[in-house]
Amino acid sequence: MISRTARLALASLVTASIALSPLSVLAADPAPVSAPEVAPAPVAAPADKADTKKVKKQAKQQKKAEKKAKKKSKKKAKAAEAAAQ
């Protein structure tokens, strides 16, 4: 039989190797580091940003309304099924 000390040592080695394996992968294949490129700021960004916000908000509201309608129809179907039984 394996002694408790040997079992603990083996468990520690396995745990350490599992914990360090992602780090060794990162060290073996580092991502290329390049200087960040500075892009010129667009002049019409605030207007576009406001438009995109409005579009996103409308899309979100439509999705929410569709979800609510679907949930309501599902609830009605379930109630009709329960009434039929």
From TrEMBL:
Q: Does the keyword Signal apply?
A: yes
Span of the signal peptide: 1-27
Renumbered residue ranges of the record's region Disordered: 32-85
**Highest taxon above the source species:** Bacteria
Q: Where is there biased composition of kind Basic residues? A: 54-77
Entry keyword set = Signal
Low complexity: which segments have biased composition?
Answer: 32-47
User: What is the name of this protein?
Assistant: Protein tyrosine phosphatase
Species this protein is from: Polynucleobacter tropicus
